[in-house]
Amino acid sequence: MRALVFREYGGPQVLKIEELPDPIPGFGEVVVDLKATALNHVDIDVREGVSRFDFAMPHTLGLEGAGIISSVGDGVDPARIGERVAVSYIRTCGHCEWCQRGMENICVNRKLLGEHIPGTYAQKISTPADHCLTLPDTVDFGEAAAALSAFGTAWHALMIRAELKLGETVLIHSIGGGVASAALQICKAAGATVIGTASRDDKLAQATADGADHVINYTTTNVRTAVDEITGGRGVELVFDGVGGTAFTESMFMLRPYGRLVSIGAHAGEVVEFDIIEFFRRQISYISSHTQTRDEMRTVLDLVGKGVLRPRINSRYPLDRAGEAHEELAARTAYGKIILDID
To answer: In sequence order, what DSSP letters do the residues of 116-170 get, joined into one string?
Structure first.
């Protein structure tokens, strides 16, 4: 099979197409012929060697993938051959405390595709059969790949961890990103008012078209002042933050008492200043959230299939042009997801 791998850390130029042995399914496993994968900023971190993950070289990137089951191992019903599926990118053990409690996203033995183990920048992948999620007929492979991490992560953060409620006002930082634009759709479907920030007016226009009630260009406007004006001095009930850095620090002053911030990433700064006095006086909550369960992935794929949620795909590239796709992702010009079409 053809796969995109890298043998040393570096820029997009280290990504090379190579021929690798076809995977063979073990007991309880299937092989999926991948049709599409999606890019995530963690791909860049892994490629550049700043991700803190341990893996063997050569390494294949890619969290998300969707395709067709082409072969099955012992213990798997052969009738599954030909099934259209999305592949859960969280490889779990199935027997630890958290897996037994249905919270396999924090499995103590978990490994993530493209991070700890070879991922989906390839024509084929072997995976446990129970990690394959049947796709609704109305969802194409690119949409499925775009939905897994973005909508799954946003759903878990907003609905499970932060317990988003009808009528709340939510501030979404850098609303043009894949997860943030997914969060916008989930918030609007849940009946929330959304304030979004971005550095580009075109991204803000797209967010407005997707239902954002208020938008702020943080390069030309003070976000804290703007939020205060929009909310009449009340502040917001919830901040959705995938940025970190100064946005994380400043968000404290935009939350109303008993407000919550849910953090899903920190691409603008992992170590931040934190005003503990302001934190406890305002009685606010900072909540962490990472990935999602397979049941939550099924939920968002079902909602995509019904048209309630719609993945935003900014651009698509063939696998051998992944370097260009990485350059676009690094430039942060995309609104929504960037897809690699495997075939």
So the answer is: TB--SSBSEEEEEGGGEEEPPTT--HHHHHHHHHHHHHHHIIIIIIS---TT-EE
